[in-house]
Structure prediction request, 164 residues.
Amino acid sequence: MAGLPPGDPQLVSMIVNHLKTQGLFDQFRRDCLADVDTKPAYLNLKQRVDNFVSNHLSNHTWSPHLNKNQLRNNIRQLVLQSGMLEQGVDRIVAQVVDPKINHIFRPQVERVVREFLSPGSCSEEPPAPLLSTEVKPDSSIPEQGTQHFMIFISLQMSRVDLYL
Prediction:
C-alpha cells in the first residue's frame, strides 16, 4: 500500500472497500433515505410519476385478460424514457446528499481514510482538515481517496434513489 501513488486505482479500490467494511456506505445510505420522503424534490417527482402513470392507465380498459406484467413493464419503460426520473433524482441528490457531504460525510470519510493509511497513529483529537491549502507530503492520498469516494457515494445514492 505504501508504494502506491495517490489516486492509484488499486489504492482507491482498497480505500473504498475499507470504507464499505466499516459500514460507512450503509450509514450514509440510511441517513439520506431517512430524509428523502420529506424533501420537495422527492414529493414533486412522486407526484409527476403518479400523474404520468394515472394518465397512461386511463387510456386502458381493465379486463380479466389484461396482461398486467406487460402493462407494468411498458409503463416502466415509458417513465424511464421520459427523462423525469433522471432529472428528479438529480434534484433529490442536490437536496438530500449535497448538504451532508461537507459537514457529515467528508469528516467521517477522512477519519476512516486516515486510519486506513496510518493505522495506530490516530489520536483522540481530530487533526486539521485534509483539504487545507497547506501542502503536506502525505495529505494527497487521503484527499484523492476522499474525492473519489465522494464521486462514488453520489453515484450510489443516485442509484438507490432510482429504486424508491
Remarks:
- Residues 127-149, 154-164 have pLDDT under 50 and may be disordered.
- The two ends are 38 Å apart (CA to CA).
